[in-house]
Specification:
There is one protein chain. By secondary structure, this protein is an alpha/beta fold. The protein folds into 2 domains: 186 residues, D-Amino Acid Oxidase, Chain A, domain 2 (2-Layer Sandwich), CATH 3.30.9; 144 residues, Rossmann fold, CATH 3.40.50.720. It is 22% helix and 26% strand. The strands form 2 sheets. Strands 1-8-9-7-13-14-15-12-2 form a 9-stranded mixed sheet, with helices on one face. Strands 3-4-11-5-6-10 form a 6-stranded mixed sheet, covered by helices on one side. The chain binds flavin-adenine dinucleotide. Flavin-adenine dinucleotide binds next to β2, α2, α3, α6 and β12. The site of flavin-adenine dinucleotide has 41 residues, from β2, α2, α3, α6 and β12.
C-alpha cells in the first residue's frame, strides 16, 4: 500500500453504479477535479476476523411504490403505510406526511400505529407533532426490527418502484416525500450521538465510468427496471468529482468522490424512540395474525406500518422481498469515508457502531431467505481489502 497516498488523498468524482444500488442514488452530475484534496484517508482494516456482526433483512419492495391508502374495515379507519423497498429510512418523514391527511380525515385524536420500524416510528412522531396521542403496537421494537439492520445511507430512490409505475404524478409525489424527509434530516445534524451525518465517499471502478458494466456485474439479475428518479433532486445534492490518476490511494484505475448523508441507525432510532416516549407515546407488544384483530383495539384509527410483515398479515402479494445482508466490522473512527466498488456490488459505510459492509447476492430479488451466508460477507470484506493492499 502507498501509505502516503492514503494520507493525502486527492479530489474526487462520481460514477455509474450497478442498477438499483444505493450508489445510484449518489450519482449527481460530475465535475472534474474541482476542489482541493479533502484531507488524509485512513486505510480500512478489512479482514474477516474483524466481523463483529452479520445481519440479513428483507426490503419490502412494491413495483407500484409504497401503499399509502385508507379503508373502513372492522369498525376502524385503517390507513395502510408500507412497502418502502430500499428507501424506508430515507423517505420516512416525507412519506409519513403524505399519510397524515388520511389519518386526520378520520377525525380521531387517539390513534394506533402498528409497527415500530422506520415507518411506524416516524409516522407516530408526525402524528404526535400534529396533536395526536399515539400508541404503537408491534411484534418487535428496535433493535429487533428489520429497519435496525439497514445500512444507513440517504437512498431515496433505492428499489422504490419499477419503471412502469413511475408516472409523472408518481414521480412528483416521490420527490415531495424525498424533499420533505431531506429537510427534516438537516434538523437532526449536529446532535449528540450524531444520528445523522454527512460523509464523503468514493466510487471505484476497474473500467472507465463512461463504459457500461457487463450484465453479470449488475447483481440482482432478477430485478425489474428501476426509474431514474434522482435527477429530480439535483438542487439538493452535492456534485461529485472525478479523480485523476494519482489523486486517490485506492488500488483501482478509476475513482470519483461524492458527498452523501448517512444515518447512524442505532443512535438515530434510539432518538426516535426517546422522542416518541417523551411526547407521551406508549409501546405495546402485540402480534396480529389477521387484520380483523385491529377491530379489538381501543383506538378507532389504525395506521398499518408493518413493512414486509404486511405481506403475511394482509395476504398482500404485491410486496416482494429483496434480501439484503450486511457485515459490521469493528468500528474505525478514523475511517470517515464510504466506498462503492462499481461492478462488484460492494458497498462500505463507516458508522459509529461499526463499519458496514454490504454485498448484494445475484438472487436477492424475490428471495425471502433470511439465513446468514457468512461466506458472502467474508468474500466482500476480502474484496475490500484488495483496494488497500
Ligand atoms: C440490507 C438493507 C440495507 C438497507 N439500507 C437502507 C439505507 O441505507 N437507507 C434506506 O433508506 N433504507 C435502507 N433499507 C431499507 C429500509 O431498511 C426499509 O425500507 C425499512 O426498514 C422499512 O421500514 P418499515 O418500518 O416499513 O419495516 P420494519 O422495520 O420491518 O418494521 C415493521 C414493524 O411492524 C411490525 N410487524 C410486522 N408484522 C407484524 C404483525 N403481524 N403484528 C405485529 N407487528 C408486526 C414489526 O415487528 C416492526 O415493528 C435497507 C434494507 C436492507 C434490507
Amino acid at each position: 500500500m502507498k501509505r502516503r497516498l492514503f494520507l493525502g488523498a486527492g479530489t474526487a468524482a462520481l460514477a455509474n453504479l450497478p442498477k438499483c444500488s444505493y450508489a445510484q442514488t449518489t450519482a449527481p452530475s460530475t465535475a472534474l477535479n474541482a476542489f482541493a484534496p479533502p484531507g488524509p484517508i485512513a486505510p480500512l482494516r478489512a479482514s474477516a476476523d474483524r466481523i463483529i456482526d452479520l445481519n440479513v433483512c428483507l426490503r419490502p419492495f412494491r413495483a407500484q411504490g409504497p401503499r399509502i391508502a385508507s379503508e373502513q374495515r372492522y369498525g376502524k379507519t385503517i390507513v395502510h403505510h408500507y412497502g418502502h423497498g430500499g428507501s424506508g429510512w430515507s423517505l420516512s418523514w416525507g412519506s409519513a406526511r403524505l399519510a397524515l391527511p388520511l389519518i386526520r380525515a378520520s377525525g380521531h385524536k387517539q390513534i394506533a400505529v402498528i409497527g415500530c420500524g422506520a415507518i411506524g416510528l416516524t409516522t407516530a412522531r408526525v402524528a404526535q407533532m400534529n396533536g395526536m396521542k399515539v400508541r404503537i403496537y408491534c411484534k418487535e421494537r428496535p433493535p429487533e426490527v428489520a429497519s435496525s439492520k439497514a445500512t444507513g445511507l440517504w437512498s431515496p430512490d433505492s428499489r422504490i418502484c419499477s419503471s412502469e409505475y413511475a408516472t409523472p404524478a408518481w414521480t412528483q409525489a416521490w420527490a415531495s416525500m424525498a424533499r420533505s424527509s431531506f429537510k427534516t434530516y438537516q434538523s437532526l445534524l449536529g446532535l449528540a450521538d450524531r444520528p445523522v451525518e454527512w460523509r464523503d465517499g468514493y466510487i471505484l471502478s476497474d473500467i472507465p465510468f463512461d463504459q457500461p458494466l457487463p450484465d453479470s456485474a449488475h447483481g440482482g439479475i432478477d430485478e425489474p427496471d428501476y426509474p431514474d428518479l434522482i435527477g429530480e433532486l439535483d438542487d439538493i445534492r452535492p456534485k461529485s468529482v472525478l479523480l485523476r490518476p494519482g489523486e486517490h490511494p485506492f488500488r483501482v484505475a478509476h475513482a470519483k468522490r461524492f458527498t452523501q448523508m448517512s444515518f447512524n441507525i442505532s443512535s438515530y432510532q434510539r432518538l426516535l424512540m426517546d422522542d416518541f416516549l417523551r411526547a407521551g407515546g406508549e409501546i405495546v407488544h402485540e402480534v396480529f395474525e389477521h387484520p380483523r384483530q385491529f377491530g379489538a383495539l381501543r383506538e378507532r384509527t389504525v395506521v398499518n406500518c408493518t413493512g414486509y410483515g404486511a405481506r403475511a398479515l394482509l395476504g398482500d402479494k404485491s410486496i416482494i422481498p429483496v434480501r439484503g445482508q450486511t457485515a459490521r466490522l469493528v468500528p474505525q473512527i478514523e475511517v470517515d469515508y464510504a466506498l462503492i466498488y462499481r461492478g462488484h456490488n460492494l458497498f462500505m459505510l463507516p458508522r459509529r457502531d461499526g463499519v458496514l459492509v454490504q454485498a448484494q447476492g445475484e438472487h436477492d430479488f424475490g428471495n425471502e431467505d433470511t439465513r446468514i451466508d457468512r461466506a458472502l460477507s467474508v468474500a466482500a470484506v476480502e474484496r475490500l481489502a484488495t483496494l488497500f493492499a
